[in-house]
Amino acid sequence: MNIYLLLFLEFFKMGALTFGGGYAMIPFIEETVLSHEWMTTRELVDFIAISESTPGAFAVNISTYVGSEVGGILGALCATAGLVLPPFIVIILIAKIYDRFKRSAIVQGAMLGLKSTVVGLIGATVLSVGIEIFFSEGINFDVLKTANFYVSLGIFAVSLFLLLYKKLNPILIIALSAAAGIAFGYTGIIKV
């Protein structure tokens, strides 16, 4: 199958079947990217970090990056178009009929189920990305002897604290985290 059509169809499927936004989409993106061998898990985690740190919607950014990596500019356009087309159509349809059905017990139940599933999908993403960041060489006690582990853990803890308790702007947290990573890498404390 043509790579551009494949990118469009795979991301169209993700856009049509994923509820909860870009983060809930990560498990589907991971499965698709790895099954087609478009990139490694490490490359995907890097793309996730870049997608989160750049302006725009996360899901659009990651689809654009993956498409670009696989098929250049045309690949980026195909993946992005495939991703955004289903939600665009669905939101137009929902906007037309939602007022009539929003008080329905069926709709309310469906929304409860979907919201709970989204939390599970995001949790799975946190675990998957966390394992790749903290235990990229596999889960063993030797990881606890590396500076990379403690620096990553420290940056994670400080970021979480600043976000949850100090309500610091996420853009500032991303910039500070990048600066900390550069500083630790430049001084040789962490190994890339």
Short description:
The protein has 192 residues and is mostly helical.
Describe the structure.
The chain has 192 residues and is an all-alpha fold. The chain is 79% helix and 0% strand. It has helices at residues 3-17, 22-35, 41-53, 58-101, 105-134, 147-164, 170-186. The longest helix is centred in the middle third of the chain and has 44 residues, at 58-101. It is globular. The model has no long low-confidence stretch (mean pLDDT 88).
Instruction: Report strand %.
Output: under 5%
Structural class: mainly alpha
Show unreliable segments.
Answer: none
* Rg measurement, Å: 19 Å
User: Can you count the helices?
Assistant: 7
- Global shape: globular
Taken in chain order, the helices and strands follow as HHHHHHH
Total of domains = 2
For the largest beta-sheet, the strand count, sense and barrel status come to: none
Count of distinct strands: 0
Q: How far from one another are the termini?
A: 37 Å
Average pLDDT figure: 88
Tell me roughly what share of residues is in helical segments. Answer: over 70%
